[in-house]
Task: inverse folding
């Protein structure tokens, strides 16, 4: 049964938001994607299934003998795809990044290598994919019962971001929201409370980020903070606290104080609320698809769909700039 139809079965999480995400991405041409070290069933199957749905055109980068062996052992057909040979995982990461720099790929996808190996190649000063932006990660969460998908940032890359880092983290998330065609992007800067407390640094940073948005240093969204999680996503909680704001209770982007809190928030939604969590890295020259071996196939496909939409938005921006 096709994966998108399987997600519709009665008695299960409907995955409606992710299916809509994939459908929107299919309105665009497939994105050429360098897949770094797809040397296990999960990563190779993900690339193949994303190709079948016309989301990506994968270029498989890694030890050819290993990739062919995985394909043969699992009955996977890789004959339509280009293979770029690499000696090992570090070499695969470097060569996948090189394909992007050469203009042959518009997205990067993690295979069966450690995230640090891939990101090390991405941030290399002379040969990587750095831009003026700080690199950050976003989870796109499909939470059952919640009206919209939630973007959570940063729960995977920046361990203890400074205020300067958070400017980029917030702007990256806003740009993602626009790529996902959000009509209005409402950003909640989270803390443990909704009042500014000099003893809690995250509340000071939240207030500063909101003032930066007022002054045009952060653009494209409504910002509010500090907000506690309840009054960021629950209209009832916001009303009880008497918080009057177009964001409070209606946030669709959640900016966490640090990686630890963000990781706990995302995983609590996944394991306690049965949420799906697609993942993408922003701030590099191209979107970077980060998936986990524990992710369901639909979640991995949704991550590819997000990359397609980001790549399409990037092309549109370049085209507009040229005109």
Result:
């Amino acid at each position: 049964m096709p994966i998108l139809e399987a997600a519709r079965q009665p008695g299960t999480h409907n995955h409606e938001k992710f299916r809509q995400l994939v459908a929107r991405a299919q309105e665009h041409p497939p994105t050429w994607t360098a897949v770094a070290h797809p040397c296990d069933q999960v990563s190779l199957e993900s690339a193949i299934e994303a190709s079948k749905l016309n989301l990506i055109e994968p270029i498989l980068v890694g030890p050819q003998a290993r990739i062919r062996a995985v394909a043969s052992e699992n009955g996977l057909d890789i004959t339509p795809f280009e293979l770029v040979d690499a000696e090992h995982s570090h070499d695969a990461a470097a060569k996948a990044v090189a394909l992007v720099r050469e203009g042959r790929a518009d997205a990067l996808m993690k295979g069966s290598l450690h995230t640090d190996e891939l990101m090390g190649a991405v941030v290399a000063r002379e040969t990587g994919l750095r831009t003026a932006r700080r690199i950050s990660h976003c989870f796109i969460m499909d939470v059952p019962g919640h009206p919209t998908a939630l973007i959570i940032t940063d729960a995977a890359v920046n361990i203890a971001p400074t205020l300067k880092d958070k400017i980029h983290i917030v702007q990256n998330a806003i740009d993602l929201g626009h790529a996902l065609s959000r009509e209005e992007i409402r950003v909640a800067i989270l803390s443990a409370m909704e009042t500014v407390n000099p003893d809690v640094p995250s509340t000071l940073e939240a207030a500063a980020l909101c003032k930066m948005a007022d002054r045009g240093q952060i653009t494209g969204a409504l910002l509010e903070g500090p907000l506690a999680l309840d009054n960021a996503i629950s209209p009832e909680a916001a009303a009880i606290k008497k918080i009057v704001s177009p964001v409070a209770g209606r946030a669709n982007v959640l900016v966490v104080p640090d990686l630890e809190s963000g990781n706990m928030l995302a995983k609590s939604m996944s394991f306690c609320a049965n949420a799906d969590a697609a993942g993408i890295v922003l701030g590099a020259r191209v979107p970077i698809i980060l998936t986990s071996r524990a992710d369901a196939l639909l979640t991995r496909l949704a991550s590819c769909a997000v990359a397609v939409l980001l790549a399409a938005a990037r092309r549109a921006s370049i085209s507009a700039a040229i005109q």
